[in-house]
Design goal:
heterodimer, A: mainly alpha, Four Helix Bundle (Hemerythrin (Met), subunit A), two-stranded parallel sheet, 5 helices, 10% strand, B: alpha/beta, Rossmann fold, 2 domains, five-stranded parallel sheet, four-stranded antiparallel sheet, 22% strand
């Protein structure tokens, strides 16, 4: 695994990326709090949005993790969600955006 | 095209509108189904893009409203992260013309929008070089309008407005829609501007019932240009 993930984005998307990534970082906190409260519906909604958005911004891994967390929420599998959340947090921490 | 987008996630609506605008479309985004429905009662659009899961009135409910309340068969494209077969079947059976599963690919999205536009309004194709009617013809490539074989002198905006109406015969077009299409999305103009120019081209091109045209103002909505049987004066 490289130290830094570098994702190339189109110019028209570039200005939107920082907010997108900041919102995903905020999602980590929301999902963590929802997990503590066993609010699987809140997790499902956040994960569903992530599933739909990541790939379009050039971050397919975010979509993959979102899809997996959405399924985890449907299954009420807290352990799986926690593991996926840790992966998402780590992934976000390694992203370096380069304009394509 | 003027596209109404239902999407409650600002990340998504900003991205999709950026893609659409870069491709030359006008994009109006709504986070709530009821806001889109309220707007659709007084404005016209060339295409609706609907997400499914939005707060309040869902995309599926908005679709049903569109098909029940908008007479014109405006194309509807569902763009949603729901991917189960039963969801796709439900949307298409309820009246959606196409369905894309998120995450979206930009080029596929734009290609599907173009395909829907081609099927919905073949006369609006940009590559169509000549619009011909009984006494009226428009050479689009050379921006020339002829009435009974003689050139009609027109301002740029009058010409653009005439072509827009002639490419959308039979459609109700809101003043806002006309303003965006002819003057551009950022035009800071009163909608009375549209009324003034419509009046002018009605006279210049003789778009009157005697000549087989009805160019009518629809109260609180906009305009509709129709072909009718010529009425003897």
């Amino acid at each position: 695994m490289p130290d830094k993930l570098v994702d190339a984005v189109d110019a028209e998307v570039a200005a939107l990326v920082p907010r997108f990534l900041a919102n995903r970082a905020a999602d980590v906190g929301k999902i963590r709090a929802a997990l503590a409260g066993a609010d699987f519906e809140a997790i499902r909604v956040a994960a569903h949005g992530m599933k739909g958005g990541g790939g379009a911004y050039g971050f397919p891994e975010i979509s993959r993790l979102g899809a997996a967390m959405e399924e985890g929420a449907r299954q009420r599998d807290a352990a799986a969600i926690a593991e996926l959340l840790a992966s998402l947090d780590a992934y976000l921490g390694r992203i370096e955006v380069k304009q394509g | 095209m003027r596209i109404a987008l239902l999407e409650d996630a600002p990340d998504q609506s900003d991205l999709l509108c950026a893609w659409l605008k870069a491709a030359g479309h006008n994009c109006r985004a709504y986070a709530l189904g009821r806001d889109l429905v309220r707007e659709a009662q007084r404005e016209t659009f060339d295409l609706y893009m609907l997400d499914w899961e939005v707060p309040g009135m869902s995309g599926a409910e908005v679709l049903l409203w569109i098909r029940a309340n908008i007479a014109e068969p405006v194309p509807v494209l569902f763009v949603t992260a729901r991917q189960r077969e039963e969801d796709i079947v439900h949307a298409l059976s309820s009246g959606a013309d196409d369905y894309m599963v998120k995450p979206l690919g930009k080029f596929e999205l734009l290609a599907r929008i173009d395909a829907l536009a081609r099927r919905a309004r073949p006369s609006q194709r940009a590559e169509e070089g000549l619009l011909e009617f009984a006494r009226l013809s428009v050479d689009v490539r050379n921006r020339r309008v002829k009435l009974d074989g003689r050139d009609v002198a027109m301002t740029q905006k009058d010409y653009d407005l005439a072509v827009f109406l002639l490419r959308n015969i039979g459609r109700l077009l809101s003043r806002g829609h006309i303003l965006e299409a002819v003057w551009g999305q950022s035009a800071d103009l009163n909608t009375r501007t549209v009324d003034t120019h419509v009046s002018r081209i009605r006279g210049k091109l003789q778009l009157t019932p005697e000549n087989g045209w009805r160019l009518s103002a629809v109260y609180q909505h906009g305009y509709r240009l129709e072909r009718i049987a010529a009425i003897e004066p």
